[in-house]
Design brief:
Shape: globular
Structural class: alpha+beta
CATH superfamily of the largest domain: Jelly Rolls
Domain HTH araC/xylS-type: 169-267
Keywords: DNA-binding, Transcription, Transcription regulation
CATH class of the largest domain: Mainly Beta
Number of domains: 3
Order of helices and strands: EEEEEEEEEHEHHHHHHHHHH
Organism: Gemmatirosa kalamazoonensis
Oligomer: single chain
Radius of gyration: 19 Å
GO molecular function, one term: DNA-binding transcription factor activity
CATH architecture of the largest domain: Sandwich
Number of helices: 11
Distance between the termini: 47 Å
Protein name: Helix-turn-helix, AraC domain-containing protein
CATH topology of the largest domain: Jelly Rolls
Length: 282
């Protein structure tokens, strides 16, 4: 493997980028079929998949990535990617000096790569929104969102802490399979084979959210991933996500990600006809 890649030197074709003291971020595109050989970075890397499907190899493990996947890769961690379809990612790095300067917490960041869910995805999305439509206070907004994001990372269970129970995956899959009408806590506890109170405590410890808030978060993330695919209108996506009111969908989306569904869609595609169609749904 070659020497670690320096901060701000992201793989992929840059669409837009910004750098300021201790922080570097860029939106990059990747061609279908591209294989990125095993490499490492000299600073922690956060990558939010905006569009496309890919795989990541870390050690002996391979995992599939799609829109709304948020990856955390520690500095000097070797990984490789293969892009199955055309992709667009938001990549963010920060130095140890920045992490110390902002006082991100007494706990260290995770030592192993993580596929992150929950509100951390929202903060990464807000960083992307500020990068796409900057104004006089965008740097402040980016640093604030990044601080909240790394705070979420710092809370992830570390070595020596209770391990993730296997039944938690069963619960997550059941929620994922019916996001518009999630199972009750009693149903989830029965599936997991644990007491409801134990399920709620464990779920909150691992996700930093209640079961209900987690389901709401995944529902809006799923809608955002559908927008990235670009094969349905925003009104159809809102209805499929359980939003009977288009304006309600827009309000929830903006509150979660810092931009409207139409603005997000237009940022990913430059087709004028598509923009006109989306504007009618915005």
């Amino acid at each position: 493997m070659t020497a670690p890649i320096g901060i701000g030197q992201f793989v992929g074709a840059p669409v837009r980028a910004r750098t300021f003291e201790g922080v570097s971020l860029a939106e990059n595109t990747y061609a279908a079929g591209l294989r990125v050989a095993a490499h490492a970075h000299d600073a922690p890397l956060l990558s939010l998949v905006l569009q496309g499907n890919a795989t990541e190899d870390v050690g002996s493990r391979t995992r599939e990535l799609g829109a709304q996947s948020l990856l955390y890769t520690p500095s000097f961690e070797t990984h490789a990617h293969r892009f199955l379809t055309p992709g667009r990612w938001l990549n963010v790095q920060f130095t140890a000096a920045w992490f110390a300067r902002v006082g991100a917490g007494e706990r260290a960041l995770p030592k192993a790569p993580q596929l992150v869910r929950g509100t951390a995805v929202n903060w990464a999305s807000r960083i992307g929104a500020e990068l796409r439509e900057p104004d006089a206070v965008s740097r402040l907004a980016i640093e604030g969102a990044l601080l909240l994001l790394v705070s979420e990372l710092s809370r992830l269970p570390g070595l020596g802490e209770p391990r993730r129970p296997r039944w938690l995956g069963v619960v997550e899959d059941a929620i994922e399979a019916s996001l518009t009408e999630p199972p009750t806590v009693a149903d989830l506890a029965a599936l997991a084979g644990v007491h409801a109170s134990h399920l709620l405590r464990t779920f909150r410890r691992h996700h930093g959210a209640t079961v209900a808030n987690y389901a709401r978060q995944r529902r809006i993330e799923q809608a955002r991933a559908a927008i990235a695919q670009g094969d349905r209108s925003l009104s159809a996506i809102a209805l499929a996500a359980g939003f009977a009111d288009q304006s309600h969908f827009t309000r929830v989306f903006r509150r979660a990600f810092g931009e409207t569904p139409g603005a997000y869609a237009r940022s990913l595609r430059g087709d004028a006809l598509l923009q006109d169609a989306l504007l009618r749904d915005d």
